[in-house]
């Protein structure tokens, strides 16, 4: 697993440690790899797990990483949206060249065609969108409006081509914004959508510096793990030549997020959100998305599922990250 | 001009020599660059034209090429479809890395933002298409089914991103198959669509080794030059963030091409076409396209125009390449 130190990587590793099955067979071993931090090893696994620092921008390292020919590769490693926008070179180096290094290393192994689960993003889309959001379906053009989205869309195209040529067996998941994202804010421009829920629930003031009209598409960390596991096990015959697809999600504006927070946690919690003047960089990033409610028909037909309301996303966060209680208040 | 030795590059150079205006101003000079052959210099130009061999896969060479800061760059250089499919590495090296080298060289020049006209291709599309071909419009997803198409779709994404970031001012043209392509067959899998017209008209037997039901979208060499000139001069304000678009074209199956040839040139000429058993490689390539009649609404609204019937394409070829006469017969 590449990007095993990230939030989703860690959740996925914990899940695999608890339910050590993939494709109907027991997991023999797991390697957690990350360029930035040595991934934590989840406790209680019945199979060996190793954790290491390695950088996919080093093509030799990629060769070494695939030399033990894992059957499943989860490629979650990426420079996130905000950083890919502020550091043009680094975004392309990791998100494009790194991904290509990995795919090339796999191609170089003979008679080897692992299932590669690649995390793409809803940010491969960019407006203007059709008037009816159900028309932004599986055939809607990918015209990203951020460098991150462009790099991920290129990764999807490579995934298709390497799959079509038989070098690997890819599945790409256009992930909604993961919400509520636990832990500290990261450099993803989409962090704001979680910050305004997570911080108030923890009794911490948070600044809202983008417009409340911006809309987004969301799924819980639990759903993200579910998508990844489901993608790893999907029957190749159902995939065809288009290996990436938009995952289902919950559509909401920031205003609707705040209303959900009010319903779930009350006015006292909402009062921790302080509205400020828009931050031009952040506003520009979220404006580049401002997603419609993608129907995600193809993914749903293949059995990918997620939550139905934003309230559920908040409840899930309280349950899994706050032991079921909002600090300082009885639910 | 990169790819200046190719068929379209040569036609464009000849046109510019005759009509030395671009963007309402006289042309001061023209550099014709090609990796494979030293481009012919058209005669009669009122401005200096240099011709040289240079390879965009050499990033230092790209730096040198843009160091004199041309106002317009026509990037026509590419490994064509058949070769990009049979030589995976070479296709990515030239079509992806070469294009990126060029864009990076432009980005490295400070306070410089040239108009870059990039030839993409209808092969960025891949089926399945919507039932109604008018639904394969400007918002239809790009999911190529050849490595060439993938490389060109990636080039389009880079063109968008580099344009959005202000590093260059790109326009990408998804060219139909150029037909009737003069000269010798090249390694483009789309060559067959021209071969079955050009060779019989010259009194030469030609083998048809793909199904007559395959459909394609066509434009004449003259239209291709028209697209390039129009793209160079297009007002940036009309372009928005989506810098590439499908060009208008004439839709026809191979069967319809042959019917048009019969109407224009008669049964004797058609008899030079010998049908053989399908060639699996060629058939697979054309099956990967099998294009619908793209409406090309956006390009048409911006003033890009082309022929209306396949008969016209044949007449144009007879006029410009055969001095208006079919050898061995009075028209």
Summarize the structure.
The first copy, chain A, is of the alpha/beta class.
Count of discrete structural domains of chain A: 1
Question: Which percent band covers the strand fraction of chain A?
Answer: 15-25%
Which protein chains make the most extensive interface, counting residues with beta carbons within 8 Å of the other chain's beta carbons?
A-B, 23 and 23 residues
- By CATH reckoning, the class of chain A would read Alpha Beta
Q: What can you tell me about this protein's structure?
A:
Two copies of one chain form a homodimer. By secondary structure, chain A is α/β, with parallel strands linked by helices. Chain A has one domain (55-321): Rossmann fold (3-Layer(aba) Sandwich), CATH 3.40.50. Chain A has helices at 7-18, 59-66, 81-86, 88-108, 147-164, 191-201, 221-233, 254-265, 267-270, 280-289, 297-301, 310-321; strands at residues 21-22, 25-26, 30-34, 49-53, 72-75, 115-121, 169-175, 177-178, 206-208, 215-219, 244-246, 250-253, 273-275. In chain A, the strands form five sheets. The first copy, chain A, has a four-stranded parallel sheet with strand order 5-6-7-11, with helices on both faces. Chain A has a three-stranded mixed sheet with strand order 8-10-12. The radius of gyration of chain A is 19 Å and the shape is globular. The two termini of chain A are 38 Å apart. The interface between A and B is medium-sized, with 23 and 23 residues.
């Amino acid at each position: 697993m590449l990007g095993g130190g990230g939030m989703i990587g860690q959740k996925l590793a914990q899940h695999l440690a608890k339910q050590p099955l993939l494709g109907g067979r027991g997991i023999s071993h797991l390697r957690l790899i990350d360029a930035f931090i040595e991934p934590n090893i989840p406790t209680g696994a019945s199979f060996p797990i190793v954790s290491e620092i390695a950088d996919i921008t080093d093509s030799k390292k990629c060769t070494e990483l695939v030399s033990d020919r894992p059957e499943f590769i989860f490629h979650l490693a990426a420079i996130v949206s905000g950083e890919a926008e502020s550091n043009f070179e680094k975004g392309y180096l990791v998100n494009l060249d790194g991904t290509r290094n990995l795919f090339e290393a796999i191609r170089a192994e003979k008679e080897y065609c692992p299932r590669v689960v690649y995390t793409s993003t809803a940010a491969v889309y960019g407006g203007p969108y059709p008037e009816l959001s159900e028309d932004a379906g599986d055939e809607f053009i990918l015209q990203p409006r951020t460098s991150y989205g462009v790099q991920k869309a290129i990764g999807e195209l490579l995934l298709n081509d390497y799959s079509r040529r038989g070098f690997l067996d890819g599945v790409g998941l256009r992930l909604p914004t993961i919400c509520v994202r636990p832990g500290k804010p990261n450099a993803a421009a989409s962090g704001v959508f979680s910050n305004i829920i997570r911080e108030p629930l923890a009794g911490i003031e948070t600044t809202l510096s983008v417009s409340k009209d911006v809309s987004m598409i969301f799924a819980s960390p639990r759903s993200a793990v579910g998508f990844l596991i489901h993608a790893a096990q999907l029957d190749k015959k159902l995939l065809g030549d288009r290996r990436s697809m938009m995952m289902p999600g919950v559509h909401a504006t920031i205003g609707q997020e705040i209303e959900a927070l009010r319903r779930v946690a009350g006015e006292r919690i909402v009062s921790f959100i302080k509205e400020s003047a828009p931050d031009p960089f952040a506003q520009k990033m979220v404006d580049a998305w401002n997603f419609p409610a993608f129907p995600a028909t193809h993914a749903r037909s293949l059995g990918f599922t997620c939550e139905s309301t934003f309230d559920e996303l908040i409840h899930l966060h309280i349950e899994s990250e706050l032991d079921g209680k909002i600090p300082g208040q009885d639910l």
